[in-house]
Amino acid sequence: MIHVDINSLLTEREKVHGEFFHTAMLAQGIKSCIHPHLPATIDPILPEAIDMIASKLARVASGDAMHIDHWDDIAGYATLVANFLRARADV
Questions:
Q1: Residue 16: which of 83, 61, 78 has the closest Cα?
Q2: Residue 19 lies in a domain
Q3: Secondary structure class of 84 (helix, strand, coil)
Q4: Is 18 within a domain?
Q5: Total count of domains within the chain
Q6: CA nearest neighbour of 14 among 24, 2, 28, 1
Q7: 21 in a structural domain
Q8: Less CB within 10 Å around the terminal CB: N or C of the chain?
Q9: How crowded is residue 72: how many other Cβ atoms within 10 Å of its Cβ?
Q10: pLDDT for res 18
C-alpha cells in the first residue's frame, strides 16, 4: 500500500496552484460571470469545459502562472470542445 503524506502534497500543490481559498474564490467569480449568459439548451460539454478552464485560469492567477501544465490543460479543454463541435457538425 502506498502512503501519501497529504499535508506535504497540499503544500507542494499550493506552490503551483495557489492557496485553495483564493483560487476557489477566483474560479467561482469567473464562473458566476459566464454561466448566467449561457443558453439553457447548451450541450453539457460546453459549461463543463468552461468550468474547467475557469479553474485553470484561477490557478494561473493565484499560483504559478509560468507552470506550463495550467496552459496545456486550458488548451486541452478548448480542444475537446472544438473536436466535439467539429464532430457534431459532421453529423
A1: 61
A2: yes
A3: helix
A4: yes
A5: 1
A6: 24
A7: yes
A8: N
A9: 11
A10: 96
User: What does the pLDDT read at residue 4?
Assistant: 78
Ranges assigned E (strand) in 1-91? none
* Among candidate residues 65, 53, 54, the one with its CA nearest the CA of residue 18: 65
Q: What is the pTM of this model?
A: 0.89
Asked if residue 1 is part of any domain, the answer here is: no
Query: What does the pLDDT profile of the chain (91 residues) look like in tens digits?
Result: 677 799 999 999 999 999 999 999 999 999 999 999 999 999 999 999 999 999 999 999 999 999 999 999 999 999 999 999 999 998 6
CA distances from 84 to 37, 78, 79 (A): 21, 10, 8
Residues 41, 51, 79: CA angle, nearest 5 degrees = 85
Distance CA 76, CA 5 (A): 30
